[in-house]
Write a sequence for this structure.
């Protein structure tokens, strides 16, 4: 088991992704290759789940794009992720926010968590 | 054929240069010891016998102890013969994985698959079962169905797929890619799955 951890530490781990939780609103800059050109697409939405451990850990971001709910899952360690910016901290009471899928409009909002500086 | 004996550590996934995720099996291949050299003149074929994993003397039979004494090595747990080895080695030499493989090589992996015991045809051969729970049927959901005709041929053909021991069998996975090598820890990463449980011996051959 230690050897697996060694492989992950050596080859895949990246530490530049900030800490966030389900319910937070994030912007993911995702690198897209078109032919030989590379551009960065920003995908903004709410984190509805964080899944897995180690090399295969992923997070899923849900957003409403022109009236349709879109969910995208990103691996934490993917080299295609340019960076993640946390816009808002959300106040939620569960780890997987699947209930948002049935809600639209005002009901689908997540209360913001007030963070006070100590 | 060149090869080495390793041990399956487990699976994980890594990213390739395009950012694509690939599932890999991690295999630990400590340097193998040459325990016997067979040559055309005396044995009618060329081969190298490799061994790995130190064993206790009390757990080794006396005939094998003599065999290891000839090779001037400690008793080993696993011995495998590789025919027509392309690297020349002498008795008692060690052979490490980076002498044989490079990143990007296409290899085969041989192991003993996980044993599943006596299984029915649905698990063993992918049958779909006879089917319905209703329409007058009972207890037929995983049944094999008909196994042949009646008075002609009046027998069941050989090779008819039926239930039986599943797994725990030597399986060769062909055309796997060496994705990465970590020589400092004797680790080799092979794309895809490799037969066997964690800690099982795996032969990687090229």
């Amino acid at each position: 088991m230690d050897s697996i951890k060694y492989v992950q530490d050596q080859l895949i781990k990246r530490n530049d992704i900030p800490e966030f939780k389900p319910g937070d609103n994030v912007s993911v800059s995702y690198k897209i290759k078109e032919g030989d050109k590379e551009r960065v697409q920003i995908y903004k939405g709410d984190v509805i789940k964080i899944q897995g451990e180690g090399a295969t850990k992923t997070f899923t971001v849900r957003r409403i794009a022109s009236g349709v709910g879109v969910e995208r899952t990103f691996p934490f360690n993917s080299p295609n992720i340019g960076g993640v910016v946390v816009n808002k901290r959300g106040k939620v009471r569960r780890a997987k926010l699947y209930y948002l899928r049935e809600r639209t409009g005002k009901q689908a909002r997540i209360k913001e968590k007030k963070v006070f500086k100590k | 054929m060149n090869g080495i004996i390793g041990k399956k550590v487990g699976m994980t996934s890594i990213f390739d240069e395009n950012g694509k995720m690939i599932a890999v099996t991690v295999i630990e291949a400590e340097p193998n010891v040459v325990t016997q050299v067979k040559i055309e003149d005396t044995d009618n074929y060329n081969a190298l016998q490799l061994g790995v994993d130190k064993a206790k003397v009390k757990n080794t039979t006396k005939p094998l102890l003599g065999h290891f004494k000839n090779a001037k090595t400690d008793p080993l747990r696993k011995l495998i013969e590789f025919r027509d080895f392309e690297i020349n080695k002498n008795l008692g030499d060690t052979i490490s994985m980076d002498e044989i493989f490079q990143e990007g090589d296409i290899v085969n992996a041989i192991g003993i698959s996980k044993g599943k015991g006596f299984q029915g045809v649905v698990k063993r051969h992918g049958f779909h079962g006879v089917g319905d729970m209703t329409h007058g049927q009972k207890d037929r959901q995983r049944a094999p169905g008909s196994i042949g005709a009646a008075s002609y041929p009046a027998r069941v053909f050989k090779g008819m797929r039926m239930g039986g021991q599943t797994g725990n069998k030597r399986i060769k996975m062909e055309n796997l890619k060496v994705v990465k090598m970590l020589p400092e820890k004797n680790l080799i990463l092979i794309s895809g799955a490799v037969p066997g449980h964690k800690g099982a011996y795996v032969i990687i051959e090229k």
Notes: Chain B has a mean pLDDT of 91. The first strand of chain B starts at residue 3 and ends at 15. The interface with chain A takes residues 9-15, 18-19, 21, 26, 28, 180, 182, 185, 187, 189 of chain B (CB under 8 Å).
